[in-house]
Structures are given as structure tokens and as C-alpha cells.
Design brief:
Rossmann fold; alpha/beta; 2 domains
Length: about 375
Amino acid sequence: MRIAVDTSPLHGHRTGVAVAAAELLDGLRAHEGVEPVPYVVSFRARLDDGERRLRLPAAAATRLWSRIDRPRADRWLGDVDLIHGTNYTAPPSRRPTVISVYDCWFLAHRELASAPVARAGRALRRAAQRGATIHVSSHATAEVARSLLDTDRIEVIHLGPPRLDASAIEPADAEADLVPSVTGGAPFITAIGTVERRKGIVDLIDAFALVGADEPDLHLVIAGAPGDDQGRLEQRIAAVHTDLRSRIHVLGAVSDATKQRLLSNATALIYPSLDEGFGFPILEAQAHGLCVVGTRAGSIPEVGGDGIELCAHSDPGDLAAAIRRVVTDSARRADLVAAGRTNLDRFDWDRTVSEFISLYRRVIDEHTGSVSP
């Protein structure tokens, strides 16, 4: 079984989509009888060994694929049995297609989507109309995708947990002292993720203003690449009291080593998203023995299980109350940590890859049965 796998997410900033694509590719390579055929939609990306190039600029490709079913990918991919678009889109093809959709925020809030994201959304809708099977990583996302994409071809396969690199926690590079130097060794809570509207980071600033007034030693550390909410975040921080402002630290994008040090030293991970398709940081925090506060939005309750303190989304007051509970109650934190470690047993990459292979076989068989001899 030859599966064309979009590895474009691996060429650029390492996001959750890239983690998922890399783990899937490695898992498929380890399975006898499965041959992944990695492909990249780009003119410029420097290809790794074995990758094939669809000779189209990504922007031009999504612009075309949102309007017409040309050009097909078959000329570049050759004799594959199925195409898996790992990043919301896939090229038109005579082959059966699976497309991974991690969240539907950009479909539900078109007015907030950038032009490239809006084009990808239109290409995704067209692919769904062509009969592509849509993979989602949570049951919460499945309900939304079924409605917004107007298709019943929705398949839920949970992703696995991020793998920990124990060596990254050791103070082996110039960033070793970054975390304690930022907070002066004081206790801190942390939020990790791109600063985009969907992540609710601005609500976290409002919640911290409430908690911080009662907890004068507590700091907030925000780590993540700038996104479409960076401007609002900076404005909201500038508006808080000077003392609170001095305890809010925005690091921007950080290395894996710094991220793991944050998770190893924080009092809690705060996950205030307005929507979420899966949520790798939740499982990563649980693997580090860190308690998590998160909203009842999207997949967060589904993925966090019993190892997460839940609150309403878009409600800084309720978020502040949840943060205050875990910061001030060590017994509650210990319970969440224990439940989080147990929760991790529900997620496994080997099982995830096996479920994908079963899905591929089923979709290929359906396609073969529908094609006249």
C-alpha cells in the first residue's frame, strides 16, 4: 500500500501539525506492507531524501484548488494508492483522499481568517464535496466539521502524545538559565502556543490581573510565536497595573529545551483556548507532571480527561477562579497531576498509526469498489 503523505508542514516553524505529520510518517515507515511517499507543495523548499515536489507555489495551489480540480497531483505522485493531506488541504487526484483537519475555527470564523487561510478553507470545502474523507483528532471537532463541511465522511482518530526529549531538560545550552532569570526564581504559571485569537491569550491577561492582585509573588510566562492576536495582547498588557505588568513575560517563540524547562518548573499550564482540535501541550504538561487549567472548549475536556481543571471559555473571571484553585491548593494540584499521568495511557502513537492504516485500507477498498472495471 503506497500512501502519499503531505510533509509540507515539516518545512518551517515546528507546529502541532508538524508534530502530527512527522509522527505519522515515522510510524508508516515502520509498518511492513506500507510505503509512504512524502510530497511537498512548494517551489522553494529544500527537499529531504525521498520527498517529491508538487511544482506549484503553495499560495497558487490553494487558489486553484479552491475553484477547479486542476492540476491533479497524479503526474507528480505516480502510482500511489491514496493521498493523505496532513495540513487541511490535498491536491485534486483520481486517487482516494484523506485530509486531516485539526480544528474548525477558521471555517466557523471566516471574517477572522487571513487570505491564505481563507483560500485553504475554500479548497478544503471543495475537496469534501469531491468526496475526500476528513480525519479529525477529536469527537468534538467531528461534530463541527460534519456541519461546516456538509459531509458525513468524517473519521475520528486521536493523535498520540508529544515525545519527551529528556536531554533537552538538562542545562546544556545558552538558554539554560532563561526561565529562572525571567521570573527571578518566583513561582509562575505558563501558557504555550502561537499568539492567535483562537488561543484566548488576551483572556488570560485579564484573568491574571485578578489572580495576581491576591498572589503578589506569582508570575505569568507566555511562550509562543507571534500570531494574529499579538497586537491585542500587547495592548492589553500595556493597560494593566505597572506591578502586574512587570510580572507578565512574553518570550515569543522558544526552543524545545526552553519549553520543556517551562513545563518542568511552572506551577500550572494554562490553556485558555476558545476552540481546540486536539491540544498537544495538555498531554505534554501531563507527561511532565504539571497540572493543567483549560477551558471547556472544543477537544480540551476530551483530551485532558480527569487531569485538567476546567472553566468556561471567554470568561476571565471563571478562568481566574480555576487558576486560583490550583495555585493555592497543593492537594488539588497533586490530584490533577496523578490523574494526568493516568490520562496519558489513553493516547499512543502506535495505536494512532494502526488506526490510520485501517482507515486507508477501508477508503481504498471503497474507492476501488466504486470505480468501474
